[in-house]
Amino acid sequence: MKRRLVLLGPPGSGKGTQGELLAASLGVPVISTGGLFRDQMSRGTPLGIEAKSYMTQGQLVPDRVTNDMVRDRLSQADAADGCVLDGYPRNVAQVGVLDQILAERTWRIDAAVELRLPEDLIVERLLRRAVLESRPDDTEPVIRERLAVYHRQTEPIAQIYQTRGLLVTIDGDGLVEEITRRISQALRAEA
Ligand code: AMP
């Protein structure tokens, strides 16, 4: 069974929600780099303070900080049997670092699930979330920047996983349960 998954998709694609559901169904933790950064921020740690300046501008937190945080998280006992990575890797360099971290443990990614959604729907969803969750990076200019960063830095990594035969592309438009079903079906078909 596939137990080590990467979730790809623009901000607002439902990655967070689907990551939680997928991880729960597999009985593995979800490792969300955005979530880990927000947690550090709310605790006011040095890592959180450094991350905040990038996050509030819609930029990626520098790789050295992010990679160490992920390496550390993956070394924790609950990640030994698998995990769903939400928001990591987010650029081509991070793909290489993740490969290394996994190889050190003779682990590998079993599939990369990419959620696809039209841009106008994404912006609409994020603006709605801004009202509900009051995230500091859900304002319109920051949303635009995060989408630009996604297209520039994150989208190319789908191609890498595609070349490796690991990419599963899912239509991310629809009800939460529908999308969960699409993901499970696609992963089963791949098995
Ligand atoms: P997310 O919750 O995944 O949308 O992430 C929120 C923010 O956290 C992003 O806009 C980045 O500033 C930062 N972040 C999350 N994951 C990464 C990553 N893998 N590399 C660099 N920055 C990240």
* Low-confidence regions: none
Q: Please tell me how large the radius of gyration is.
A: 16 Å
Task: Note the total helix count.
Answer: 8
Secondary-structure element pattern, one letter each: EHEHHHEHEHHEH
3D structure, described in words:
- The protein is an alpha/beta fold.
- The protein has one domain: P-loop containing nucleotide triphosphate hydrolases (Rossmann fold, 3-Layer(aba) Sandwich), CATH 3.40.50.
- The chain contains eight helices and five strands; from the N terminus they run βαβαααβαβααβα.
- The chain has helices at residues 15-26, 33-43, 46-55, 63-74, 92-104, 119-133, 140-163, 176-190, and strands at residues 4-8, 30-32, 83-86, 111-116, 167-171.
- Strands 2-3-1-4-5 form a five-stranded parallel sheet, sandwiched between helices.
- Helix 1 packs across helix 8, helix 2 crosses helix 3 (46-55) and helix 4 runs parallel beside helix 5.
- The longest helix has 24 residues, at 140-163.
- Residues 11, 33-34, 37, 54-55, 58-61, 66, 87-88, 90, 94, 137, 146 line the site of adenosine monophosphate.
